[in-house]
Amino acid sequence: MLEKAGEKQVVALCQELIRQRSYSGEEAGVVKILSAYMKEMGFDEVTIDRYGNLIGCIKGSRPGKKILFDGHIDTVPVTEEKEWTYPPFAAEIHDGKIYGRGTSDMKGAVAAMTCAAAAFAKDTKKDFAGEIYVAGVVHEECFEGVAAREISRFAKPDYVVIGEASLLNLKIGQRGRAEIVIETFGKPCHSANPEKGINAVYKMANVIEAIRTLEPPHHPVLGGGILELTDIKSAPYPGASVVPEYCRATYDRRLLVGETKESVLAPIQELLDRLMAADPELKVKASYAVGKEQCHTGNEIEGERFFPGWLYDKEDDFVQAVHAKLTEKGFAPEITQYNFCTNGSHYAGEAGIKTFGLGPSKENLAHTVDEYIEISQLTKAETCYYGVMEALLK
Q1: How far is CA 231 from the centre of its chain?
Q2: 0.70 surpassed by pTM
């Protein structure tokens, strides 16, 4: 059982994590603090992988299932610090709330996971079947699920708990997302004689209008696939007196269950092929955007921006086991889906690992000015994570 001392500990850990600014690629300070806490709390192993993910492990006395608690430790930047009521990296407490960048997204959850795992190990004297992993994941804000691949290879979990904010409701799915790049290639010339060139932007304008006729698929639970233009760039830029020879448009495509890289691009490519057949001057290409970032370890992390959707049935045994335990503890969790993309894109969408989301705080506080987490949500999350271990480590 969790006690008042445990509540103080989870608040203190959350505050320490917030005080370490950890934009993507700058998570080393959080890793150092969280690693020290885990070792002090009696974790059996604490590992830092090549990307800088921190993975703490507690082993039960008997073989059994493995649970991985996943929480990213990078945050989006603070762009206008003067707009914050309280300093974004001070972790000040006001009216029962801890304020700061990453409180809800999602260092509060990471603190609660860590403390819950330590409390469970202490209360059971590690006399349980299985293993508990708590992962502080890097670079999630850049591309969901890429760094997580390294974690699942290491831990090989049977269950994954995503700690993204859910107001302590159970989330059993999400739409994924992809960044699709459309490129047109023209012929440069002086803009005083445009007939001598091929304007890549004009070609792109026609392509964009044609893509608007495509209708993405729809899922009865997750909703629409969505295919939305998000940006467009031409080159050379600035293009003084030059007809642009290149144009690049980016689309946000929301992914549904079962969609693959091939199936998502297929209707777009078919459309582009028809357009090129009708216009011999048109040269156009479709692909997925590729992200490349520097890790705090000095290594590079790279991946295509394709993050699959996933969905489990609310009647699945592991979902019902957790729901029953949380209900027994006095909670009333709804079983729904996330409205945004998470590391579940890898665990469930790519690797097929039984996954659900359960986290403190409100989803709409992520990335906001005056981001906060209610202390009551933080301490309740620790109780919920403890309950997950009771439900699944039998």
Answers
A1: 22
A2: yes
Query: Per-residue pLDDT tens for 201-254?
Result: 999 999 999 999 999 999 999 999 999 999 999 999 988 899 999 999 999 999
Structure tokens that stand for 388 in this block: 């997950």
* Residues 6 or more apart whose Cβ sits within 8 Å of residue 24: 74, 75, 138, 139, 140, 141, 142, 293
- How many C-beta atoms surround the C-beta of residue 61 within 10 A? 12
> DSSP states of 117-173 as a string?
HHHHHHHHTT-SEEEEEEEEESSTTTSTTHHHHHHHHHH--SEEEE-S--TT-EE-E
Q: What single DSSP character describes residue 218? A: E
Of 69, 73, 62, 64, residue with least CA distance to 27 = 73
What does the DSSP 8-state code read for residue 79?
S
Q: In a 3-state reduction of DSSP, which class is residue 240?
A: coil
d(CA 221, CA 243): 46
Distance, CA of 231 to CA of 208 (rounded, Å): 11
- Residue 98, phi then psi, degrees to nearest 5: -95, 125
The answer to whether the beta carbons of residues 292 and 302 sit under 8 Å apart is yes
